[in-house]
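Researcher: Structure for this, please.
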Amino acid sequence: MMSMSKPIQRVFILGMDGAGNFIQNTETPNIDAFLQKGAVTYNAQAQSPTISAECWGSILHGVIPEKHQLNNDIAATQVYPSDSPYPSVFRLAREAWPEAKLAAFSSWTPINSGIIEEDLGIHKESLPDAELVGAIQSYLEQNNDVKLLYMQLDEPDGAGHKYGYGPDSPEYLKAISKNDELFGLVLESIEKRGLLEDSLVILLTDHGGGGDHKYSHGSDHPMDKNVFWGCVGPGIEAGAALPELFIVDTAAVAAYALGLKQPDSWDAKVPVSLFSKLGV
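Model: Predicted structure, token format:
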């Protein structure tokens, strides 16, 4: 554990799947208003290949896909090894705090079953987006003292595969706006419980789409690679610049905020100046 005098008591990682940076092209009033309080970029870089398991694996495990070796098939059929040299931020938290409340809510089941380790005593739920948010609201009512909570909503990616990705796809943009409403409900629950003042809240997506193929993703085209990423919390100034950021860095930011020493094996880095008031 790093000894740091800082007020962050818990971290929320709230994500939607397949939204790229297209929140700029549709109505997302809840996310926009929230991120005005902190740091945001619309040019964070997804990992390659720009596919869900590879990207969420990097977000949670702090390493590039070549290391964590996850893909959609593996995540759907195998359990992530609990003795991997590339632990998730959940495993770091559990090793530091055996009794802490940790929770993962994922609309795409393989994240809970195959990307986040088993047997760590993590509260896990996998449900469709709207039901999942209801479950998060219920959980927060009972567990004000949660230490780390992760959410993944899935509808933007589903709409992209069905209707096409990008700023000229109305049904896709509508799915992102619908997720914004759900994000708003979660953020409202966090605020209502008085947790905002001592929490770091990260909002992000894993990849975009429509680059090489209108109905898919996986390439290094900017439409697939460029994603939004933002965070709000103690020590993060409103309007703070985020120059170069890869989504793999999410794990480092979460670990740093919780006062956890990140493993030497991780590729993730805390962006320079992000926590300027905390001396980083």
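Researcher: Any notable elements?
Model: Residues 1-5 have pLDDT under 50 and may be disordered. The longest strand covers residues 146-153.
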